[in-house]
Amino acid sequence: MAAAAAGDVHEEMLNRRVILKRYVTGFPSEDDMEVVTGTARLAVPAGSTAVVLKNLYVSCDPYMRGRMTKHEDPTYVPDFVPGEVLTAFGVSKVVASGHPGFAVGDLVWGMTGWEEYTLVPNPALFFKINHPEIPLSYYTGVLGMPGMTAYVGLFHVAKPKKGEYVFVSAASGAVGQIVGQLAKLTGCYVVGSAGSDEKVNLLKAKFGFDEAFNYKKEADLNAALKRYFPEGIDIYFENVGGAMLDAVLLNMRLRGRIPVCGLISQYNLEQPEGPRNLACVITKRLRMEGFIVTDHFGEYHKFEEEMAGYLKEGKITYIEDVAVGLEKAPAALIGLYTGRNVGKQLVKVANE
Ligand SMILES: NC(=O)c1ccc[n+]([C@@H]2O[C@H](COP(=O)([O-])OP(=O)(O)OC[C@H]3O[C@@H](n4cnc5c(N)ncnc54)[C@H](OP(=O)(O)O)[C@@H]3O)[C@@H](O)[C@H]2O)c1
């Protein structure tokens, strides 16, 4: 990173950033985003409690597509603004601080920008990284938002019991790989679906799923689920929606639970598909419950300690797909909607 002007640490630095060019309808393209170069001052305004962050890793997450749509009614997270930098979870180092809780050199994770340096007016929602001995990039995934999503959806919403039958879709992704491993630690029988044979092999060989299948090779999803769950499904961790949800509903057991985490098959459709088999919710006394992980960030530190323990003990393993360089971020994000990513998709912005 070249300095725009020579001087002390308060100098202006060039700041590459990814902006949204326009609101998106349908499938996003790389051209909806643009890498531009601005400048950043590595100092906080006098008297403020702001921090300046040097971003090391930024995350690509499926929900970001929703923020590229212009919503008439506000939703749970604000729309991106054309011409402005995209924001996302990331891992950063504090390089200037006016906040008593954050010192220069601190490693943090939280909602930052897809850019090299970010001025955060109020860092209160950032978490300090307590386990820098674990790969820092994991704080975009297993030790960050997606890992906590898996934990909350499984343990707070689905509440698995030993011996139950668990099915996970998008199972090799950032959230799914953790759901499956946590369910195995609980003593469940776990099957995952994924969109390639490579991912299916990972599920079985690396993450310890009991079974896995490539849903793109199954002409009849209902028949595939009957094959893997002859006794039915107790918990379906829902990541995709669409045809998979319809097939799952037919295969749920009495009083089954469906934590509705995401519906990625619907995110780029201009007309979402409706589920056809909702009557099963009545006849089988099912509980479907949506959740948003940020509602549970109050218990993040408990989660961080538990998950860091699993990682260190080798009870949980994690796979990442790292794009190197901010200029790769738009393609990396779009790849989530075609299944190009193998494991948690993130972007390395700078060397640690
Ligand atoms: N509720 C919350 O608070 C919360 C928080 C985080 C994430 N989520 C949701 O959790 C889900 C998983 O997120 P993640 O970060 O773990 O993503 P991910 O699984 O790492 O990446 C997305 C994956 O979705 C699959 N996919 C893409 N298009 C699809 C389609 N049309 N039909 C079926 N599968 C498709 C692809 O895997 P395959 O190759 O296997 O198809 C792709 O690799 C998403 O729905 C996301 O929105 C919710």
TrEMBL record:
Gene3D superfamilies given for it? Medium-chain alcohol dehydrogenases, catalytic domain (3.90.180.10), NAD(P)-binding Rossmann-like Domain (3.40.50.720)
Give a single Pfam family match.
ADH_zinc_N
* Top-rank taxon, per record: Eukaryota
- The segment(s) forming the Enoyl reductase (ER) domain are 38-347
What GO molecular function terms would the record report? 2-alkenal reductase [NAD(P)H] activity
Keywords annotated in UniProt = Oxidoreductase
Q: Which SUPFAM superfamilies match?
A: GroES-like, NAD(P)-binding Rossmann-fold domains
Instruction: Share what the entry says about its subunit structure, partners included.
Output: Homodimer.
| Protein name according to UniProt | Enoyl reductase (ER) domain-containing protein
Q: What is the phylogenetic placement of the source species in the record?
A: Eukaryota, Viridiplantae, Streptophyta, Embryophyta, Tracheophyta
